[in-house]
Structures are given as C-alpha cells and as structure tokens.
C-alpha cells in the first residue's frame, strides 16, 4: 500500500486503523496455518459506514481489501495474499434484534454464532449451523459453512434470510427478504453467500432461528468397518428419523479423542447420532427404531446418552477431533479435505480413499458429516517431509477424481479459498468464465479479496 | 418473426415447429388468464440439442424465445408478449433416473411433479414441493414455486441440487452439485432458479427426494376470527411440531369449497394442519400437543383425519380453493396476491388487508400457507367492472405497502412475471440495476422471455 493510502486510512479512521506488526501478524494466517501473508494495515471496522468508507478509499487508492472476522477459515480465505487492507469486522458484533415470533435474528457480521445462541436460547430458539470454533455469522455466510447440524437444518446458505452488502462501487444493497420464502426477481443473496468476500462485504444479516428440540438423545454405535458405518448412515437417512446429527469417526480419530480428552470410547469406526422428539414417548420410539436399524446394519455396541451432560461430552469429543489430532502430532502440519458426495456413493468413495491412504502408508484419520455425504480426511506430516506431502497431495488428487466422478463436490463446507482452485476448475470448468464475468461485474479492479476462489486464467 | 427465421426453424425442426393458430393460441395465455399474446410459432422441443439449436437460431435471427411447460404460471410468465418463439419443453418429460440411496432424481424440465411422485413412491420417496396443477419441474424451478409442503420441506429452490442450463451464447453449463451441500465457488444455480427463463433455459434437473413420512394425520381447526387462526399458526410453528402442512382458509373460501365439492365444513376461519411421525405412538403424542395448543389458542372445533381417504379429501379441498372460487363466479376475472411476511407480522398484515377489503366492499377470500407467512387474497370481479377493479388494485397497493413495511416480499411463490414489476421495484429498488446488469450479461440482446421480471428502466 502506498503512503498516500496509508495516511488516508489514518486520517479517516485514526486509532481504528493499525499498522503495528503484532496486529498485522494476527491477520496474516487462518486456522489452517498453511499460509502466512501480512496485510499492510488492519482496520477494526465499527460500523457499516466504516466498511463503505474503507471500500471508497480502496477504490480511490487501488489497494486490496480482505475481509476478516474470527479467522477460523480453513482454506486461507482471510489471508491477504496481495497485502493491502485486512478489514476486521469483529468489532461489528451486535445482535441487533431477535424476533421470537418470526424465528429470526438480525446481527452484525462479527457476531460469533455461540453468542447468538446464548441470546436466542432465552426465547427457546437457536441458530442451527455449528461449524465449531468461534466462527462469526458474516464469516459463515462468506464460506457457506455448515457442520453437524446441517443434516437436519441445512447449511448457512439455507438459514440466511436477508443481508446488507457493501459493493465495491460504493452502493449498499439489501438482498433476500425477511420472509421465509420469496420469488421476487433474481436471487442475489445466494451470489454473495459463499463468495468469500470477493464480490462484496456483508455488513448485516437477518438469519433464521429454530425452536430448540423438546427431547434429545445421542447414540454412539460402533461398527467393524467404516463401510458398514457409512452404509448404516444411508439407512438412518432413509428411515425418516430425521436425525439432528449423524457423524462418523474412524478408529484413529476415536483414539486421538480418547488420548486428548481422556475418554475410553471403543477405538472402532463409530456413528454418532442425535435424535429429537416433541415428547419422551416419541423419543423412546425413535430410539427403538434407530437402535434396531443400527443393529441390523452390523452395529456391535450401541450406547445412548440422554442426560444433557453426557450428550455435551459426546459432541465435545466430536467438535475437538481436529484439535485432538493436532495435539497428537505436535509440529506436524495438517491438511483437511472436504469432499461431499451423493449419499449412496459415500461408502465407495470412503473405502477407496482409505485404501489409497493405506497403500501409501499415510497415517490419516477420517471424520464425516455422513448424513450429508460430507467427510474430511485429516492428513498430517512434518512440514519439511516432502516425500509424505507429495504422497498426501497425490491421494488428495485421487480423492477429488473419485468425488467428482460420483457427482460430488470438492468442498462441502470449507470453501475454495487458496487451496481448492485446481479442484474448482475440475468441478466447474464449464462455468469458470461465467464466475469471472460476475467477479468483473462486482469488482472490476480486482480489489476484493484477490487471489481467492478463481484460478488465474493464465495458470 | 421474419420469414427467414420461420423457414430456418421449419428447416431445422420440421413438424416439431408449428405456426398453426390452435397451437399458437394454446401458448398465448397462462392459468391466470389475465394476458393473451400469440407467439409467432411454437417449437415442441424433444431434446437438449433442440433447445440449444433454437437459441442459436434466435441469436442469428434476433427473435424472442419464451420457455413454456405446463402453462400453469400465475403472473403471465409464459405469455410471449413480444411474440417470437414459444419454446415448449413438455415433450422433454423423461425421468432420467432415480437414486433411492442418494435421495435424488434426475429429470427433464417437462416432467410434471405428480409424475415424478408416481415414480418415486415405489422407492418410499417423494418430491415434496406441491404447487398444485400439473406444474413441471422446469417451470417450478423457473418461478421458485412452492405450495403446502414448503413449511416442512422448503421451496423448489431448496430442493434442486443441480441443473443443466442452455445459455443464450450457445454454452451449456452445469450448475450446483448432486451432493447435498457445496461451497464450490459462486452459486450460479440460485441465479437461474426463479429467473423465469430470462437468463437461460433449464434443460435438466437433479432434485432432492424425501422419505415418505411413516405416519400421518390431518387436523381441521375452526376459529372465531382469522386473527386467532393466524396467531395459532405462529404457536404451532414455535412448538417444534414441525408440521408437514399448515394452511389457513377464511369463511368465504370454506363456503366456496363446500359448494364446489359438496362438503359440509363449518364456514369459519380454519387452520388445516398435517402432522407426521415415525410411529403411531409418536403421532398420537404430537396430536395431543397440537390439539391442546389449538384449543388454548381459541380453536372451537378440532376434527382429525387419519385415514388416507379423509386426508386426501381435506387436501383436495385445499388444492381446489382457487377453482372453487372461479366456479362460484362464472365470467368473473380473478386476481391472486402472493404476499409473504415474517411470521410474527402475519396476523396484523392479514387483519389490515381484510379490513381494507371490507371498507371497500370487496367480495374476496383468503387462503394462506401461513406456516411460511405466505397468503393469497383472491380478488374477483366482472372483467369490465372498472370501478371494482380500481378498488381491487388500490387494495393490492395497500397490501404491498403493509407487506414491505413488515419486511416481507411481494411474491412468496408465484414470481414477478408481468404483474408484479411495480412491486418488485418497491421491494428491491436498490438492486434493480444489479439485476439488469446480470440480465445483460446472460442475454445481451434481450431475447430470453423479454418483458418479464424487470420493469422498463424508462417506465
């Protein structure tokens, strides 16, 4: 960034604009820790007007702007690879209103979803998308994040009603509607959801809240093989049990969790299922149907947890899988895949991928939102172990080929960012030009989070 | 259309291209019967290649193309107001495949959704969006249609996984994914859904199917006032009962249904609720919760229907409301509104609208997908009764003002077409220019269904 730009930012924003090394470093990498690039400066935006004015200065001085919130992205989305301004919206963290009768809340983009849940609970409602970490609503919309709740409640995309978006040309627009459904003209809302801040900056969201389930219980079912666990997941989805959550963990992942959290779960492929009902009787009923189904499918051990305590413990274990793996291999770099396939193809694609990992002697673990057909392979190795990383990337390539051949997608919930552009080109090569046209339309000078999503046409 | 264009179409398509008066007239109006305009010719497309070639000829000879399927649109979407070619895809009516384990089906755009349901039922699955009539999947995607199932299963938008779209420049693109969720790049799928054939022509869809509910029952609850019925709907939605359907009909509508179908339903404001569960016990349970809730909310008479026969009879009555009204007033023209508001605002907006109708002595009826906050006012009057039509349009304007003030939308499920452009401008005035940019991007010569959705910038 040129001195003129820096002083213009200082002049407009004063203390809220920082070029200190510590602040810049705190905005140079995301949770994947795969990339590091310093912004030239960081703006702690406090209002929509701050965002609008920052974009105006970017337009005038031609510097890149990379929106930043919790920094919990996994594909480098918030890393300012071309420098410029890191636009930090974590200070825009007000829950502006909750309408219990409308099942909706209006929030600023920097609100962490656990905070929204704390406030919604009073009304017997909750925000149903739970990617983990302290992800913010703005960040979740920008990557279309999901998590364990998506199998029942959909992804962030399905739960955003309306947004206010600051465009690069200075316009503020409102997209979507606070009504539950609309057919009013071209759907712009879904264009900005999942755009990773490359088309506009989200400054406000009205999101859908759901009634808290009356009665809940969790099942932990172990299986002899991952395939049998995955096939059971297909059966559960077909039984109209409508589970709240349906997760798979493989043996190494359970082992890591046991070590990290001091648990004693059987170290076998495991399905974790959460069921809800409006009454204890109905819940008991659903449990019996589900238990019978799992046993028919080859489950060896079916444990149930009804007390809130036990259930919390189970889901803590699931949510800490990623950190459990890192803890087990200090100093290793980690890489998580995010394939999502049509449910009926999941057992084959899982099997294939695990086999290729074995063939290559890769020490990996699998965890999956298998009710959605979405699973993550957690690769890890010492950063400088080039042979292993070559094997990892070769396996990743094969997984992607199998996924796309199965009609799936290279990313179910993490987004493209810096690392999936090659796979995006394989998945949507026929529409990359359309996507580039849209990028040019909203950001003709390529200043909004440059380097993300779209592969360089040259490369 | 010029003679050169007509002969080019004849040369390419032979018998499949028709200029006969009868065929053209069959493509000149939709179900609303508010508009009539003849196309210059009609192509009965049989394949994706037919569509691609038709667009190529349109490009070459600069004639308009208006996609046509069931013709059941309600806002004139399929009326070729600028003449040109009516592109009839009803011949593209093959269910290409059903993947039971993937909960999805791949269909051509001309497949009527009841036909998809006939074929899916064998697998214990169904397509959950039911706008009524013999609507096709392509048409439903083009208007983002919904209906009584949306409260539980979402709209067409929520149930389309992947589409193939023919673009005006000759490209065929695939948008979306067959996976349940994806974060792979800009979401183009949602841009074409609800675009009413103005951005491209849908040639294939892969859609989501749902497991048929195990146990079902329907409730019919009468209330002293429409407000109490609407307020009860809000309570039902809050109780996590997750109803399959939640519909409201007012007294005149029930009366019309009684007369038209020879029923004897109490002619009072009525909520029709369908509940589902995985077991009879669970269903009984849900019924008790729901019944108690309705009685607390002021329900006077709660009748339940468990037998498939009775339930079919109930929903037949609901689905035939529109025709019941027409039958009652032969020779009258009808106009249906389609407001959708956040649920907590529904009672007020309903009350306000009914009051304005009374004030003006308008003889109307109300029916609503109230679980979504969506309701229809059915206006009717003799076509030449200009005074009444002026009063109707004045009331419509007031309803739209109240709807938009409540954070709602001018159309929940019918789309914009020819008749809601004024209201679209009121609802999304800040984004009309963006929508026009998108239209220019995909259809620079304005040949795809011209005259729909976007108001003339001049006007």
Automatic annotation (TrEMBL), chains A, B:
It is an enzyme of class 1 (oxidoreductase). Gene3D superfamilies: 3.30.465.10, 3.30.70.2740, Vanillyl-alcohol Oxidase, Chain A, domain 4 (1.10.45.10). Residues 35-212 form the FAD-binding PCMH-type domain. Signal peptide: none annotated. One of its GO terms (biological process) is lactate catabolic process. InterPro entries: FAD-bd_oxidored_4_C, FAD-bd_PCMH, FAD-bd_PCMH-like_sf, FAD-bd_PCMH_sub2, FAD-linked_Oxase-like_C, Oxid_FAD_bind_N, Vanillyl_alc_oxidase_C-sub2. GO terms for molecular function: D-lactate dehydrogenase (cytochrome) activity; D-lactate dehydrogenase (NAD+) activity; FAD binding. Its cofactor is FAD. Its EC number is 1.1.2.4. It holds the Pfam family FAD_binding_4. Keywords: FAD, Flavoprotein, Oxidoreductase, Transit peptide. PANTHER family: D-LACTATE DEHYDROGENASE, D-LACTATE DEHYDROGENASE, MITOCHONDRIAL-RELATED. Belongs to the FAD-binding oxidoreductase/transferase type 4 family. This is D-lactate dehydrogenase (cytochrome). It comes from Deinococcus ficus.
């Amino acid at each position: 960034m040129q001195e003129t730009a820096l002083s213009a930012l200082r002049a407009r924003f004063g203390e809220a604009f920082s070029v200190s090394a510590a602040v810049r470093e705190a905005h140079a990498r995301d949770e994947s820790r795969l990339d590091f690039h310093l912004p030239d400066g960081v703006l702690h935006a406090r209002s929509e007007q701050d965002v609008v004015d920052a974009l105006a200065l970017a337009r005038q001085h031609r510097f890149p702007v990379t929106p930043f919130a919790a920094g919990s992205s996994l594909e480098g989305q918030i890393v300012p690879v071309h420098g410029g301004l890191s636009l930090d919206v974590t200070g825009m963290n007000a829950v502006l209103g909750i309408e219990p009768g409308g099942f909706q809340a209006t929030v600023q983009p920097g609100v962490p979803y656990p905070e929204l849940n704390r406030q919604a609970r009073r009304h017997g409602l909750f925000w149903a998308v739970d990617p983990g970490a302290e992800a913010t609503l703005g960040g979740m919309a920008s990557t279309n994040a999901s998590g364990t709740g998506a199998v029942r409640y959909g992804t962030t995309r399905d739960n955003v009603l309306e947004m206010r978006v600051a465009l690069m040309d200075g316009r503020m627009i409102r997209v979507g509607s606070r009504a539950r459904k609309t057919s009013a003209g071209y759907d712009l809302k879904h264009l900005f959801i999942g755009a990773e801040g490359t088309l506009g900056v989200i400054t406000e969201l009205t999101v859908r809240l759901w009634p808290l389930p009356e009665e809940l219980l969790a099942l932990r079912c172990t299986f002899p093989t991952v395939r049998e666990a995955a096939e059971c997941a297909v059966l559960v989805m077909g039984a109209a049990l409508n589970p709240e959550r349906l997760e798979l963990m493989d043996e190494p992942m359970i082992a890591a969790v046991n070590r990290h959290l001091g648990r004693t779960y059987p170290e076998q492929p495991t399905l974790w299922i959460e069921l809800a009902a409006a009454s204890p009787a109905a819940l008991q009923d659903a449990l019996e149907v589900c238990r019978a189904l799992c046993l028919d499918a080859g489950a060896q051990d079916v444990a149930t947890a009804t007390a809130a305590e036990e259930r919390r413990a189970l889901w803590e274990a699931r949510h800490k899988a990623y950190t459990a793996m890192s803890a087990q291999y200090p100093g290793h770099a980690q890489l998580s895949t995010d394939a999502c396939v049509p449910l009926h193809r999941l057992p084959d694609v899982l099997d294939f991928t695990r086999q290729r990992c074995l063939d290559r002697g890769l020490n990996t673990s699998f965890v999956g939102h298998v009710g959605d057909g979405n699973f993550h392979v957690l690769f890890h190795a010492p950063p400088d172990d080039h042979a292993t990383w070559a094997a990892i990337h070769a396996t990743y390539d094969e997984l992607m080929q199998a996924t796309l051949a199965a009609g799936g997608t290279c990313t179910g919930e993490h987004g493209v960012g810096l690392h999936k552009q090659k796979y995006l080109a394989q998945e949507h090569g026929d529409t990359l030009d359309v996507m580039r046209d849209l990028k040019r339309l909203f950001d003709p000078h390529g200043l909004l989070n440059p380097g993300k999503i779209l592969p360089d046409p040259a490369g």
